[in-house]
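Re: that chain you flagged

S.,

Sorry for the slow reply, it's been a week of failed gels. I finally had a moment to sit down with the sequence you sent. For the record, here it is as I used it:
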Amino acid sequence: MKTFNQINIQSLRLFVAVLDQGSFSEVARREAMSPSTVSRVISQLEQALQTQLLYRNTRAVSPTESGKLLADHARQVLAQLDLAALDLQEQDSEPGGLVRINAPVVFGQRHIAPWLHELSAHYPRLNIELMQTDDFIDPLQDSVDLLIRIGVMADSTMQARTLGQQNFRLAASPAYLARAGTPATPADLASHSCLVFKGFAGSQRWYFRESDQEWRSYSLRGVLTSNNAETLTQAAIDGMGLVVFPTWLIGDALREGRLVSVMKSYQVSTSPEPQTIAALYPNGRRTSIKVRAVIDFLVEKFGAPAYWEH
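Prediction finished late last night. Pasting the structure tokens below so you have them in one place:
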């Protein structure tokens, strides 16, 4: 069993530096040490591990197989230590600077914009740039720090933190239900006015299921189709028909009685796959303190389950 008692962080840093530079003398020059001191540290490391780590010649040094293996682990250890040191430095730091956020238009209006004054008051050194669009955004090309996105999460090039689940309701106004009757099953919707969202991919399909059964999709029509969710929501409130929308959008109308949830024994969605509301940010070794601060703030304000579900 090899002992590691004589290994310290400085010896690992010097060992990795020698591999990177390929020379004892160059590392010695950069570290303001003598070449013999650097060589002695590496020799002590080899003695502690009881194995040869480097091939030495007059022109350069190169790693043995054991040296390559140690280097791989040493780089990971040193990276983690550097990250820990940075986190400790930031622990008492106040987030500041420009943070660029991109959010869907309606969700941004409903659930991001109302919290901006409190976010700014909490982090006065933070400069917030909020862009709202439903278009595809490449965070690297468009220089975005944080994306708020809703739907089926499948982008492996991004890290994600879930802010909430997207839950849907089938709803209509009391006036519409009094006039047209209340549907009891999805098949009943064929005789109702269904207000359907139509985006770039075409008209949205509505999916229904009971308990743990399979989802079934329905393509429905009504007196109004639109690419604007607010327009369709207002049309439903005005009695023009039924809508399927997420609770974050129509939760207020349901609580206030302007809309009524129907067919409660069925689950309803616009996709057979689970949909989430998530904060996305580019993959990397760590997240900046300002991005972490914004995400943590939103997680706290939204709650679990999110406040619009209550």
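What I noticed first: The radius of gyration is 29 Å.

Talk soon,
D.
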